[in-house]
Amino acid sequence: MKAQVNGTSRDLAEGTSVAAVVTLVGAPEKGVAVALDGAVVPRALWDRTIVPDGGVVEVLTAVQGG
Amino acid sequence: MDDPLIIAGREFRSRLITGTGGAANLSVLERALVASGTELTTVAMRRVDAAGQTGVLELLRRLGIEVLPNTAGCRTSAEAVLTAQLAREALETNWVKLEVVHDEETLLPDPVELLDAAERLVDDGFVVLPYTNDDPVLALKLQDIGCATVMPLGSPIGTGLGIRNPHNIELITSRASVPVVLDAGIGTASDAALAMELGCSAVLLATAVTRAQDPERMGAAMRCAVEGGRLARLAGRIPQRFWAQASSPGL
């Protein structure tokens, strides 16, 4: 199946969790948040939230700015 | 003299809020932040990329500086609300510097989207510090819906044009009951001092320090300017006169 991860189309195995996507993009341990289809997925739910086919995942962190 | 800045019940000894954007590297940023004496500093939220993290969070934590996430880059209320919610999740703070800009050329706030986003974030339990136009009416509306501060611009972000409409800033400070933070447009120390003399409670700046030829020294200059301007405001300046008035006794 395919999903959009940080703006890039990715082939993911069926049943891939949000936690797995966070690892996939190489996110740091702390200071990271995830949105799935425009809604925040709390960290506590990363393991059991499955990315659907065609899902849009954004993995964000803090950078210098403002 | 004990004169803390109080935002949403939290006390700060420094009245200078800084940004982290524009610094050549983290080492330059660190020296500038330390010299500025800031206790509250903004960061932006961006996609994690292959280059990995920037290390700015670790730097701020090591320096004991509170992190203030912003919604820079957002053009609509919906984008800003989601970005704020992501920042709350990532950084474990319900404080947000709310930015909703209209276009890239001016980076001016979009007042309609800004007010809508502010209302939604206040309802969602955020401490909202909105970056706003130097519009006294909009500032009051932001205050009335529950924003913790109002942060009018002196001039567009990154221009260094200073405070283009001092009278508007004074109108805002004369009526606001929440702290007024002059945000954006500061070019040099005298601009920061003027903001404080006009009655602002604090100044927020980034570019003026991070892109100065010597960021560390400019950070120190801004600290002194904010302190000096605040003291002058509290001291009460003399009225301006048309004719001279001798300061020495007559012969």
Automatic annotation (TrEMBL), chain A:
NCBIfam families, sorted: thiS (TIGR01683)
Protein name, as recorded: Sulfur carrier protein
Signal sequence bounds: none
PANTHER family to which the protein is assigned, alphabetical: SULFUR CARRIER PROTEIN THIS (PTHR34472:SF1)
Source organism per UniProt: Lentzea albidocapillata
Superkingdom of the organism of origin: Bacteria
Annotated transmembrane regions: none
